[in-house]
């Protein structure tokens, strides 16, 4: 009986670890939490281009993920219009890559 609390603790620890590892943040989660939607819509131009247009433009570009990751991290200028996108400093490199990959799936 005396081992029970320890086992329960271990089980809980495992469960928490498992949940942390399994809690996948998706592209849609990130565009909300990182405020991308302040300037972008998936299917309509706002301050920035729609993500569908971005996906379309880069559809045949083998370096698209790298390019978009860089644009998100460092900002983008004069690729779409007169308004620049500031560097998204609240986004990690891994998140930027995930966002780039997800945006590229949105080709209509
Ligand atoms: C302050 C407004 C603003 C915010 C916030 C913003 N963007 Fe942008 N975004 C723009 C504008 C404007 C452009 C077009 C820039 C240009 O002409 O090069 C752009 C362009 C882009 C592009 C295309 C870049 C390229 O190389 O063609 C991607 C991808 C992108 N944004 C993703 C994001 C993501 C992801 C976020 C959130 C982390 C975000 N943006 C937040 C305004 C914004």
Automatic annotation (TrEMBL):
Binding site for heme c: 36, 40, 85
Post-translational modification, as annotated: Binds 1 heme c group covalently per subunit.
GO MF annotation list: electron transfer activity; heme binding; iron ion binding
InterPro entries named among the record's database cross-references: Cyt_c-like_dom, Cyt_c-like_dom_sf, Cyt_c_ID
Alphabetically ordered keywords of this record: Electron transport, Heme, Iron, Metal-binding, Signal, Transport
Transmembrane stretches, start-end: none
Domain Cytochrome c: 22-107
First and last residue of the signal peptide: 1-23
Designated name of the protein: Cytochrome c-552
């Amino acid at each position: 009986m005396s081992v029970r609390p320890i086992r329960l603790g271990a089980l809980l620890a495992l469960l928490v670890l498992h949940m942390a590892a399994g809690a996948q943040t998706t592209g849609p989660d990130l565009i909300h939490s990182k405020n991308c939607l302040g300037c972008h819509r998936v299917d309509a131009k706002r301050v920035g281009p729609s993500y569908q247009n971005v996906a379309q433009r880069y559809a045949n570009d083998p370096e698209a993920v790298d390019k978009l990751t860089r644009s998100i991290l460092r900002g983008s200028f004069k690729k779409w219009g007169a308004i620049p996108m500031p560097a998204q400093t609240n986004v990690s490199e891994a998140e930027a890559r995930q966002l780039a990959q997800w945006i590229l799936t949105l080709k209509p």
